[in-house]
Amino acid sequence: MTALTLGLTRLSNWMAALAAVAVALLVLHVTIDVIMRYFFNAPLAGTILYVASFYMVAIAFLPQALTEKDDAQISVDLLYDFFPPALRRAVLSLGYLLTVIAAGLLAVSTGQEAP
């Protein structure tokens, strides 16, 4: 395993672990909010904002590198297995291209919303 591969593997594992911490913090935050709301009539301010803006973003995007590394995405190979090798490469290339376009559009729209 090359140093680059090892470094990227470690980074993706750390990001997935950070996403797991975000899940635990989300559960803790929402639980405290519910307890405060129903027992003390004093909910935590900004819980929905934190959940939607921070926890969910971390949970959705941080483990993507690990998912890609392990080739663990959800896929349906109904027809793909019957394709000849050249068509498989073409379909895979098209999938990668569409992924890059979608990620780019997401990055641009997020960048426009940020300021």
Overview of this protein structure:
With 115 residues, the chain is mostly helical. The chain is built from four helices and no strands. The mean pLDDT is 90.
Q: Can you give me a brief rundown of this structure?
A:
This protein is an all-alpha fold and 115 residues long. The chain is 77% helix and 0% strand.
Radius of gyration: 20 Å
Q: How helix-rich are the residues, as a percent range?
A: over 70%
- Global morphology: elongated
Beta fraction: under 5%
Largest sheet geometry = none
Please trace the helix and strand order, writing H or E for each element: HHHH
| Number of contiguous helices | 4
Average pLDDT works out at 90
Q: Count all strands and give the number.
A: 0
Identify low-pLDDT runs: none
Tell me the span between the first and last alpha carbons. 41 Å
Would you tell me the structural class of the helices and strands? mainly alpha
List keywords for this structure.
0% strand, 77% helix, 115 residues
Topology:
Layout: H1 3-40, H2 47-61, H3 64-69, H4 85-113
Helix pairs in contact: 1-2
